[in-house]
Design a protein that fits this description.
Blueprint (H helix, E strand, L loop, with lengths): L2 E7 L7 E7 L8 E8 L2 E15 L7 E2 L17 E7 L2 E12 L2 E10 L4 E8 L7 E11 L7 E6 L12 E4 L3 E3 L8 E6 L4 E6 L15 E5 L32 E6 L2 E3 L10 E3 L2 E5 L3
Antiparallel strand pairs: 1-2, 2-3, 3-4, 4-5, 4-10, 6-7, 7-8, 8-9, 9-19, 10-17, 10-18, 11-12, 11-14, 13-16, 14-15, 15-20, 16-17
Length: about 290
């Protein structure tokens, strides 16, 4: 079985957000999949998903690759395993799409929130101890941007140490497929922009998203879109995210681009606090969207 729906929010007459969602059963394992998301009538995402969740322990336990699918999700809105509801935070409203999963001892809530100001906040909330050892969860969000449509999207990186190269102080273009790591010292972040309209989305790492390590050595993957590379959660393994094989130096400037974003969520082995939820995920912020 699977569950699908379409959201027009806050109302059909004057929608801010429109998008579809699907939570599929095995073998698909990419959580709640967002499709054809538009803000104020302009395309943002062709597809957003969480296709990989790797859990890193020491040699005594794991590693694991936890599938997020319809089969391990629970009913949270009547008989539905996906809940859609309006949220408020600091006076700002939004619409959230959420699913709750249990895998072994883990309790996992995935939530996409689409805010009235255009922000998107994909989040993973994790609780529970599979093994009584400090460990890290490494969720990988796949963000298939189609800002104003598939063509003409370009990826940029920001660092405080980068001079003005024609795109404003701090920004430079990523011309080819590549991988990147976070650098808090230079406030590193990224953006995807349609160069024909100059509209785009800024990708800001979350405060709890951690940095790459030997187990998950990259934080961001910049890729050219290929349908065959969308494995619906079946790429990689517990010990290897499997994404390096997709990076072959293709030109990604003014093209159809896909961003993979990885967070690294630490969880201390404290059984008395095992059910406390830890959260991670980036914030996507629109610019020049008026």
């Amino acid at each position: 079985m699977s569950e699908t729906g379409f959201v027009t929010w806050p109302n059909p007459g004057v929608p801010l957000w429109q998008f579809g969602y699907t939570l599929a059963d095995s073998p698909d394992a990419e959580g709640v999949v967002i499709t054809n998301a538009s803000f104020r009538g302009r395309k943002v995402l062709y597809k957003g998903s969480l296709p990989s969740l790797r859990v890193q322990y020491n040699s005594m336990c794991g590693p694991y690759k936890d599938p997020l699918n319809y089969n391990n999700a629970h009913a949270i809105s009547g008989s539905n395993r996906v809940k859609v509801y309006t949220v408020w935070s600091e006076g700002l409203s939004g619409v959230a799409v959420e699913a709750f999963h249990t895998i072994g001892a883990y309790k996992l809530t995935e939530r996409w929130t689409f805010w009235a100001d255009g922000r998107i906040t994909p989040r993973l909330y994790s609780a529970g101890l599979q093994c009584n050892i400090d460990h890290r969860h490494h969720p990988y969000w796949r963000l298939d941007f189609d800002v104003e449509g598939a063509p003409n999207d370009t990826v940029f990186e920001y660092n405080t140490t980068t001079p003005d190269l024609g795109w404003g102080p701090g920004w430079h273009v990523k011309h080819n497929e590549s991988t990147r790591v976070k650098n808090p010292a230079t406030n590193r972040s990224w953006a995807v922009m349609d160069v024909s309209t100059m509209r785009g989305y800024h990708i800001i790492p979350g405060s709890n998203d951690g940095t790459a390590d030997a187990f998950a050595p990259r934080d961001l993957f910049v890729m050219s879109y290929h349908a065959a590379e969308d494995k619906h959660g079946q790429q990689g393994s517990a010990s290897d995210d499997g994404l390096a094989a997709y990076i072959n130096g293709e030109i990604v400037e003014k093209s159809d681009v896909v961003i993979w974003y990885c967070a690294h969520l630490g969880h201390h082995a404290e059984p008395e606090h095992a059910d406390e939820y830890h959260a991670c995920g980036p914030t996507l912020i629109p610019f020049r969207w008026n």
